[in-house]
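Question thread 4412

I'm putting together a teaching handout and wanted feedback from people who do this every day. The idea is simple: show students a protein as raw sequence, then show them the structure tokens that encode its fold, then repeat with a second protein so they can compare. Below is the first pair exactly as I plan to print it.
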Amino acid sequence: MDKFSFLNAAHSQLIEDLYQQYLQYPDSLEPSWKSFFQGFDFALENYSDQDFSPTQYAQNSLANNGVSDDILNEFKVVNLIDAYRSRGHLFTKTNPVRTRRHHVPTLDLENFGLSQNDLTKKFNSAVEIGMNGAATLQEIINQLGTIYCDSIGVEYMHILNVEEKSFIKNWIQNNNNQAKLEAKEKVEILHKLNQAVAFENYLHTKFVGQKRFSLEGGESLIPALDQLITRSSQLGVDEVVLGMAHRGRLNVLTNIFGKSYKQIFSEFEGKEFEEDVFSGDVKYHLGASTKIKTERGEEVKINLTPNPSHLETVAALVEGICRAKVDIEYNDYKKVLPIVIHGDGAIAGQGIVYEIAQMMTLDGYKTGGTVHIVVNNQVSFTTNYLDARSSMYCTDIAKVTDSPVMHVNDDDVEAVVHAIRFAAEFRARFGKDVYIDLLGYRKYGHNEGDEPRFTQPNLYKSISKHPNPREIYKDKLLKEGIVSDAVIKEMEGDFKKLLDIDYDASKEIIKNAMPVFMEDVWSNYSLAEKGALLKKYNTSYDLAALKALAQQISTLPKDKKFLNKITRLFEARLKMIDNNSLDWAMGELLAYATLLAEGNSIRISGEDVQRGTFSHRHAVLKTEDTEEKYTPLAQVNSNQRFDIYNSHLSEYGVLGFDYGYAVAAPNTLTIWEAQFGDFTNGAQIIVDQYLVAAEDKWKMQNGLVMLLPHGSEGQGAEHSSARLERFLTLAANENIIVANCTTPANYFHLLRRQMKFSFRKPLVVMTPKSLLRHPKAVSQLEDMANGEFQPILDDITVDASKVEKLVFCSGKLYYELLSKREELNDTTTALVRMEQLYPLQMDIIEEILNKYSNRKSLIWAQEEPENMGAWSFILRHFRHTDMQVVAPVPSGCPAPGSHKMFEKNQTDVINRVFGCNDAPTSRPVTA
């Protein structure tokens, strides 16, 4: 009885209390207590003639008197069953090419106080696993092995929710965790397997040595996806959004999305795209959108999101796209299904996986559950899985969100289908993530020119002799009499003929076509013509209506009690309106209010965005007593959405999510705000691979706005720069807009202009910190009502004919230069602000240069180090002028950590602009 030693010191009242806790929250107990009470409940149910309490049962368990050996042995069998549920996945037949290394503790009988002599004894515990009445221990073990240790290994005992756990237990015990398929369904599965295998074989023979990142060794993914879409559509899904990396993508494009084999073959020829303004992308990164009819007759829209080689990045976009679909089209999470296909190395090694997993139940980011499928070929690039992770399974991220996992042998396609159907049903019922780990192998190396035997010689000896899943399933169906040799030969022959016809036809294609991703969503938005970003757009708004909106969003409801600070802040906003002097926050909020009134929706997300990192926005208020939320902008137009969400502490995942949201929501102003601008460093992959390149690679427009607080204010290296230089380096062919505004009115028009375009372009804004409350950074209502966005703000306070020094600058430095000019009473220096740094309005710049024709010097001034900020970009555009730069010396850090050093640098820059110190002469531009 050593295993019940935990009972020795137990007080009777404690046992009774623990039992009551067990009845309400069984998973909150220490495992040994939980197992004990399971045995007690079993005894109550099956030995009702004996009347005892949990305490008496405990005592009897120790003393072994008063309770029969039968009851104690039943208890042991219950423990054995519980062990199979918890650890059975460690002893499965899920690996097609490796022998599983067994883990301890084992499931040997001796570990549960049972012996070989008990195998022929009958136990009522059999009903616990769905058996009809008592069964021998041997029969129980056989049943447990079938359910938990065959081609599917199930992890679910870590889940806390009792209803979810009960659902999973019943689901897998039903039919002994094996698929029950009709003959017709089996033939359909064989057909999809044949397509998958034959397509890969054809490519291998026709395009020898070309990269295709084949699915060979994991071909069961194709019938799995087919079944997932079919079953999900029966459960109410109308649209699917799929994200995956390159492995198996061509197979998915053709055999799930119906992309013509002819087009794929043509792309292997490396032909140019029809639109020569696009760079295009390699064939295994391209996306697709289409509508299919399942074998059961349901119509489903399916989308394959374009992806870069950064393996898990696309998952963030999938979630964002799905959320936009829910918000805008369906208003029901069950109607849209996100599917993310991972590699085993990527899901374990890429940090963004964790960021996305944590979105599962968050108000601003949930999508009703994602089906994660791991194409687990047990080789991360060329690395043995033992070098790829420390966790037992690549899917252990599932435990973070209490999500179930099914590990499945990819060779057993019926087991794969069974697991996939479970995923569809679990997700539909509980709205949570579910993980399917398809254990297969990779027939060739990372790409078809790679030699995997360099690093895995023994594994690839086994793989070279291993039959593919089609051959395995074909033999199975032949033995079952489901199909004949003639039918199989006809199936294979017909498909080969189709491939041959399409291969010949592909030779006739002169240039490849690139369809628009989600074309139905983007039908009203044409691609921008060259120069479109430099045109003027009407962003005005009726003055009286603007003032009314300003008053509406600044007036708090009288029946709610807010913090005194909030009350005073909103009173101050009303005074601003009366005084016709609006600060940055009012300019921003009015941009949102007017867009809402005009019929646009708005989504803002990021860390602390509801109040704003610097407490300027206060878009969502909490009442003092009940913490009830009140959102003034949500009252503007009840027919439009105003959503603003504080995100979890993530940049990479959240920026990807919001970029994805904007992909599917062109009529929504979608904004991501960084807490500090330099935090976008953590999301650089989204910037590099999507934000600046997606239109060029995939013809994919996006209107995402990035708000990046920027400015040197003595806060150290990490809170000063949004890395303006990086965005300007990435800017080309009018792919993005980069702005650094200095007035609330110009910011107002900049945000409004974003929705006035007949196309969509990403907007990157260096937003202010100190200017949020700067007394001179204010605008009048008339500037917003009657104005338009000004890409360059000329100096209207000086006489151009008397100007000797023309200074171009950007951002908050302008106000510091202005203050110094006023201090010096300087009338010969003009300060011109570059409000839009990309694309530069060169025609206006030429006019300004001509206007100040009497100037003796031309300066670019910046507070960023000379090797950062906009200077390198400006230099490229002013290389044939005599422009000089005034900036801090080059540095590896954006700003010094010492506040005194910051002040010294800043003062030095300002003084050098006005020539009033002995600092080194500014470096001139040399042609």
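The second pair follows. I'd like the answer to focus on this one:
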Amino acid sequence: MRLRQSLPLLVAAALAGSAALLPTPALAASAVTVAAPATAGHSPTTPVRAAAAPTPFGAEIAAPASSEEMGRPAAPLPPALLGHALQPAGTAVQTAPDQGAAPAAPHSLAAQAPAAASCTPADFGSRSGADLVSFVQGSTTDCVKTLYNVTGTDAGRIFKQSQMLTVANAFRAQAANYTGDNTTNVLQLVLFLRAGYYVQSNNASAVGPYDATLTSAVKAGLDAFLASPHRTDVSDANGSVLSEVLILTDSADLQAQYLNVYKQVLNSYDNSYNAFPKMVGAVNAVLWAPLWRANWNPAYVSAVTADPSVTTTLAAFAQNHKDLLTTANAFLDVNAGNDLARTAGDGGSIEAFAKPLVKQVLDTTPISGAVGKLYVYTAYNANQYDKAQCSYYGTCDLPGKLTAAVLPATLVCDNRTIRAEALSPADLATVCASLRGEDGFFHKLVQDNGPIPGQYGKTLTLAVFSSQDDYKTYSWAIYGNSTDNGGETIMDVTDPANQPVSVMYQKSWNDGFPANVWNLNHEYTHYLDNIYDMKGDFTTEISVPDIWWIEGVAEYESYAYRGTTDTQAMTEAATHRYKLSTVFQNTYANSDTVRTYPWGYLAVRYMFEKHPADVRAMLGHFRTGDYQGGYAVYNGLGTSYDADFDAWLNTCAAGACYADGPTALFGQSVDGATVTLTDKSIESNSSATLSSWHWTFGDGTSSDERNPAHTYAAPGTYTVALTVTDSAGRTASTPSSVTVTTGGTLPTCTDPRTDALGQNCSRPNQARTAGALDYFYVYLPAGTTTLKVSTSGGTGNASLYYNPDTWASPSAYTASSTNPGTAQTLTVTNTTAGYRYISLYANTDFSGVTVSTRY
């Protein structure tokens, strides 16, 4: 994956992938926007705030799926997007209107809402007074969340101040009798108010102004709610409502009024909350909404100046909950450090009060190791928002300090400097030798005439972290890159000051790369390609659909240079999924990882093998910056090569794409906690024979048997890797995931999308308020005959629905289980390949429910 500068808008596009491949039941995420950082020379008596108020947050949404196999083609992130407040895994916050959030059926959640006959903007905009309140509360929370995306006339009709006042007054009337859950559907009122502030901030001319009358009405509702005795209940039912109420204090710019509430929420937290994810979310709501963003607000800064004890609360939280840093709730402790450091940037007496607390956190937190994340985020934000005190904090050259601590091993390899966390001297030499050899392979492949004249960046830094976790913790703070990927190359050949860098990490299992550095040769190809083949910065390069080349040549060279088989590409070849003319139109916006990488590999390999003159003609244009001319070379082919490419795919899948020598292949069968592995490796175009096999099972154990069986001590998904060696001493490695179960307990599904189910896995701790739907989908591969869906555990009453064609609901299903309580089971037979849709409908509030799929 390659990054270039000057590409700020491509991050979200790349995340979207191919819309046809996955259903879209949640709003698309966008980049998080935060207040501008302090400048280095601000006066210590001047509060540091953004020039304008940040836009209120939108709805909590499902985070886009991410994969370590996939990188993001975007510019290095700007400072405001680095070190920002964290969310729980699998969640994000909408920060920009999503015009594509309400697609037509079958992908419309609103169309499936069972509690209301309809859920359209007109349903809300045509109502007022008690009728509006009744309709809002009669709608599902999913329905109300669709309002975050209304614009224009709809926005004005729904969210003009008179409508907001009506709902705010209803909120105040009901809040005093809050029951600790959403039995009365008070949450829908809060969501409506939050949506109003969000929509008005993005559509001020259509909605009109909001004045002090509305602020007073919302504050009255907040006061009533926060004074209710059930507001402090430690439960998921309360947490789901409380979280939205706390964010509303930020949306309404009332942060200064609720410092004591924020302190109470933080001071009350202990590890007993961890059993209730929604309550943990409510604690985090304080950290990532008002306390992270409010420093733009003069009233908030004045309140903290008068009573800075919230700063003490943040410092105590960060110090007292470091045990969280090795858990899934690490975001709580990190966000406390974030907020503390940012508060110091408010200047004056606040800075004087906060400085020693920030320094104490930094001085008592190791830079590296299990708790290093707290140091990195706190230091980064201290450096950004209180830059004038960087000497006091010891953060003036934070990238240099982190590099020295985390990437101590260094080797200068010609024009390359390798910085590594855990590579031994022998490993460093192996990496250097691999890169040196790749130079000659690349030049022979592309037949260049030397570096493109007038471009910069002839030296390269390669940074290698020891694990994906360390990559995610440190890389962004050192190099400014996104880390939701498997490695990045950042360079701008038009900038004489830019230092190209490839950032990557070592895999925890053998995947056949030199020194186990994941994507080493792929990323290095990107660097070479930009120096010798592609003139200009990345924005210029992707001005035409040429991702089939950019990513395809990196994949092809990585495998061909190492003499290894791209087994995924061979598998894809057998599917005939895409025509060559389709792959030629690849962009980062229209292609998922399969279309980008294995199909890019196949297209580039085919063109080199069958039509090298076309490749040379295309590169001749690219090297002069004539991207339209290069595009015309292959776009002008139309569909003329499609039939031959299709026939070539058959040959590839049949064995022509095997690399000479060994290829590691294996099958698996699972019975409970035991997996039986069957070697299917082959030796191609060689007189050598396979001579040894080495398996690692992903749990710290290994075997040298050819066809071992392994029993796991705990259920879960593990990476099994097979390395085969032939009689000539050549090796090949292939990993694959294995999911095992014990005692009927299924492991948690591993897909980053939290609404994705899978083969023999589960999604625990599901919770919804009465009237809401919990949506899921599962992809059934060809050959599946039976799908069993079940729910268990937790409290409340939830019915289970299944639909093979569209989002399942009480009004759209072909199979269901509606027993009292949460124990439901349904079985579907004679299934075919494709997506299937499942939902849990909350007859009453439910929480702690596990949804499982077996097939």
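Top answer:
Good format. For the second protein you could add a caption like this: Confidence is low (pLDDT under 50) at residues 2-51, 70-74, 100-117. The first strand starts at residue 2 and ends at 4.
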